[in-house]
Amino acid sequence: MAKTKQIKEQEKAVTQDRIIEWYMNYVLENGKEPDTVYKFSKDHEISEAEFYDFFGSFEGLKRGIWERFFEHTLQVMQKSREYDSFSNREKMLTLYYTFFEMLTANRSYVLFTLKHEDSILKNAGQLKGLRRELKNYTAELIREGNQEQRSGILKRSEAVFSEAAWVQLVFLLKFWMDDNSPQFESTDVAIEKSVNTAFDLFENTPLERALDFGKFLWKEKMSR
């Protein structure tokens, strides 16, 4: 009996993931954001205070959803026994493949929340946490790679590479949103080509030219 009671209490417990699930379901079922935190909380039999324990607003909740997508992606990746032996190139490929699998599992929500605006740039607010998480991850990859380089000339800029990774992710996100191929096979090809091209470029190109390439890619994709 005690065990059954404990399970029931856990099922009723308010968690960050549960609030995210409620919010995403509401958006998909109603085609809009909930009107107020008060009404949303009441509908799910929790207090406003319990909502605010995890998120300060619906805007904060939307940012939290993207952060959870990325966190779950890292958790899945790092469970692999081979992960620690991957090169940086392999880690980035695995990151993108896994991340877009996560997005595909939640495609209806992602398309709704991003296509609600004309440009992904207008959604920078809800993607802010994702941007920070991605840049931190890629900066750490470069930091680890630099520690293995004896020559300072061969060391890479964490700032440049982390910003380039963000530009690349936005490019791939827009590509995936427009992808109509079976099982989004075209996106997989785009991931492979863009990551391999980026690593080939940055490993053999001065940083100034690499940064110029990143700026060019950003302008081209964001102007559409």
UniProtKB/TrEMBL annotation:
Q: Which segments constitute the Tetracyclin repressor-like C-terminal domain? A: 91-217
Identify the Gene3D superfamilies for this entry: Tetracycline Repressor, domain 2
Positions of transmembrane segments: none
> Pfam families per the record?
TetR_C_23 (PF17931)
Q: Which domain of life is it from?
A: Bacteria
Which InterPro entries has this protein been placed in? Homeodomain-like_sf, Tet_transcr_reg_TetR-rel_C_sf, TetR_C_23
Stated name of the protein: TetR family transcriptional regulator C-terminal domain-containing protein
Native organism: Salinimicrobium profundisediminis
